[in-house]
Write a structure and sequence with these properties.
Blueprint lengths: L1 E7 L6 E7 L9 E4 L3 E7 L3 H12 L4 H10 L7 E7 L4 E5 L8 E4 L3 E6 L5 H12 L5 H14 L9 E7 L7 E5 L5 H12 L3 H4 L15 H14 L1
Antiparallel strand pairs: 1-2, 1-8, 2-9, 3-4, 4-5, 5-6, 7-8, 9-10
Helix pairs in contact: 1-2, 3-4, 4-5
Length: about 240
């Protein structure tokens, strides 16, 4: 009842997950990322522990394929689950249970992977993957959303639309971008709007937040406001 992409931006090393579904508040359960560790998307009859346990196992240095085996091995509901993950080395692994609702399946590529269930057909994830590859010139967030829009044009979730989410982690322990559309008639369109709004103020402000390199960040409001005004004047 969902399709998603897990990807690493080759230009920056950022990790991203974008997901859409005919279900309420998909961003609260499907996407999980830990900076420097990896990413997990848990869906179908979602098992939230795949996210928390998956990140913990990846953090222990286990490769993606081994983590998938461990997550599904002890879960009696594994045949109704779908999980897609990437480890810190950029390796992908996925599981689509035999009882996931058709159409269901996954594709694994070098720098990204796509999976989905209860979809209109295989073209949903195939077109999603093609669009992601074709839009390499776009900024990472916009590239992820563009790919999902292609999947939606191919039929998307066969029940319809309701929610979508985009989660991106860069070099810091907190997210670069965490956007959620919990209940909307056109969630990917709304996600597109929110991403555009984020570039008006948030992505500029984010550069001054505390970081590993500068634990106090920049807290001079005049400096921050000047940078925001300059960026907005250049738009």
């Amino acid at each position: 009842m969902t399709w998603s992409i897990v990807a690493r931006d080759p230009a920056t090393g950022a990790l991203g997950i974008v997901v859409a579904t005919k279900f309420f508040a998909v961003g609260a359960r499907v996407p999980h990322i830990a900076t420097g560790v990896g990413a997990v998307a848990t869906q179908a009859l979602v098992n939230p522990f795949y996210g928390s346990r998956g990140i913990r196992l990846l953090g222990e240095g286990l490769p993606a394929a081994e983590v998938v085996k461990l997550l599904t091995k002890d879960d009696d509901g594994r045949d109704s689950r779908q999980v897609l993950l990437m480890d810190s080395a950029g390796r992908f692994a996925a599981h689509t249970g035999a009882s996931c609702v058709d159409w269901c399946g996954h594709l694994i590529h070098d720098s990204f992977s796509v999976s989905g269930n209860m979809l209109a057909g295989a073209a949903v994830i195939e077109d999603t993957a093609r669009a992601y590859e074709a839009n390499a010139a776009l900024p990472f967030a916009q590239r992820l959303i563009a790919a999902m829009k292609a999947g939606e044009a191919a039929g998307g979730d066969k029940r319809g639309k309701q929610s979508a989410a985009l989660l991106i982690h860069g070099t810091q322990a907190y997210s670069d971008l965490d956007l959620r559309v919990d209940d909307h008639t056109d969630p990917l369109a709304e996600l597109t709007r929110l991403e555009a709004v984020s570039r008006e103020h948030w992505t500029i402000f984010r550069q001054f937040m505390p970081s590993r390199e500068k634990p106090a960040g920049v807290f001079d409001r005049a400096v921050i406001n000047a940078a925001i005004a300059k960026a907005q004047s250049e738009r």
